[in-house]
Amino acid sequence: MPGILCEHCTAVCCRYIALPLDNPESAADYEDIRWFLLHAGVSVFVEDGDWYIAFETKCRHLQPDQRCAIYATRPKVCRAYSTEECDYHSGDYGWQQHFTSPEHLEAYARAQLSARRGKRQSPRRRAPAAGVARRAAGR
Ligand code: SF4
Ligand code: SF4
Question: What mean pLDDT do residues 113-119 have?
């Protein structure tokens, strides 16, 4: 692509903020995230196993021509951002999950919590059976 990549972009990276979340482990944790997703313009994504919340909100210094009005004094996070792996390159990035609705999260949470319960229960289920087997063998 000729020229600077940003000149072909609608400044996707200046239209949201994302913050890290604690990775959910319990039904209560998922319930908190469900609440986030009830709000318009909020989504939650998982990248490299870490959870983030994203708010669609345009930077107040983004000008109509998609340029930064405070380029010389833009924040550190903007300076550190590079076009190498930026938001321009793909719609879904490398996200493992991208939740945009409470229903999507609920289905995921049900599956995760049920799998976790299954893992916790299986050793306990096996133990009595082994005891019964030993008694049956007269040991
Ligand atoms: S860094 Fe990437 S996402 Fe941001 S304006 Fe430039 S091309 Fe667009
Ligand atoms: S300060 Fe400038 S570069 Fe940073 S998000 Fe706002 S418009 Fe974009």
Answer: 86
Task: Say yes or no to pLDDT of 51 above 60.
Answer: yes
Residue nearest atom 8 of ligand 2, based on CA coordinates: 14
Q: Ligand 1 pocket, 93 CB below 6 A?
A: no
Q: Is 54 helix (H, G, I), strand (E, B) or coil?
A: strand
pLDDT of residue 59: 98
Query: What are the backbone angles phi and psi of residue 108, rounded to the nearest 5°?
Result: -65, -45
Q: Check if 68 has its Cβ closer than 6 Å to any atom of ligand 1.
A: no
C-alpha to C-alpha distance for 38 and 96, rounded to whole angstroms: 21
Continuous H helices in 1-139: 27-37, 76-80, 102-136
What percentage of the chain exceeds 70 in pLDDT?
80
pTM of the predicted structure, to 2 decimals: 0.78
